Amino acid sequence: MTTLTHRARRTEVGKNSEKKVESEEDTHQDKSPDNDSGDSKDIRLTLMEEVLLLGLKDKEGYTSFWNDCISSGLRGGILIELAMRGRIYLEPPTMRKKRLLDRKVLLKSDSPTGDVLLDETLKHIKATEPTETVQTWIELLTGKTWNPFKLQYQLRNVRERIAKNLVEKGILTTEKQNFLLFDMTTHPVTNTTEKQRLVKKLQDSVLERWVNDPQRMDKRTLALLVLAHSSDVLENVFSSLTDDRYDVAMNRAKDLVELDPEVEGTKHSATEMIWAVLAAFNKS
């Protein structure tokens, strides 16, 4: 159950949330994985790395034991990242396949991305015949399938592999922690500045930079908000805000993820994969 549907620490947000209005459509289509709405940064992170970083407890170095959503959220991030890098896309809509969840994921380019998880997924998509939908790929990559012949598509040790990438980028470190019955490898945050920058970017996107129209939002920021919600780590993003600002931020994020993906995905310059992933999580 995600942050927006289950919160024990905060009271329910008010009913007078700001309503969505139609604005001029954004003609800018993000093609670079590093597009950051003008923010300059030295460290380039994938969407999966950003989601995991948001989910990690800074000092403890692990995600909440109660979070059963982040594994699927990370797989959804892989699909969006591949789409935004121009490697995959959704098949064009037809009379029989108009819905996002009915359309198959197609290969656009099999050129390596330089990221092991992305390239492994790309090989699976290239080798799969017949092609599969977004929802099916999230299930396959997570290992949620009863078909023994499909277990080969499961991506294993995803969190650990992403954490190692973040260690190599100087954001996390590696430690061993004893939990009485077992030892666990943990990855405490060492570069708190980078995580604070990421948190502030998302907070600003629903507060100071709120445009009330997803088509005018930076596509990677939109994708990260959707994935943070689907991975149940959005609470971590807004927890440092005052109660009033928390309510505003959560209301606006709630309005965003409760939009109809089928409608938003058809709008000009929309990144279909973002809305397809959201539709898949809404259905699951």
Provide an overview of this structure.
This protein has a single domain, classed as yeast vps74-n-term truncation variant fold (Orthogonal Bundle). The protein has a two-stranded antiparallel ribbon with strand order 1-2. Strands 3-4 form a two-stranded antiparallel ribbon. About 13% of the residues have low confidence. Helix 1 packs across helix 7. The longest helix has 15 residues. It is globular and about 55 Å long. The protein is built from 11 helices and 4 strands. Strand 3 and strand 4 form a beta hairpin. The chain has 284 residues and is mostly helical. It is a peripheral membrane protein. It is found in: Golgi apparatus, Golgi stack membrane; Golgi apparatus, trans-Golgi network membrane. This is GLP3L protein.
Structure in a nutshell:
The chain contains 11 helices and 4 strands.
Task: Give the helices and strands, then pairings.
Blueprint: H1 47-55, H2 70-84, E1 88-90, E2 105-107, H3 116-127, H4 134-142, H5 158-168, E3 175-178, E4 183-186, H6 192-206, H7 219-230, H8 234-238, H9 243-257, H10 261-264, H11 272-283
Antiparallel strand pairs: 1-2, 3-4
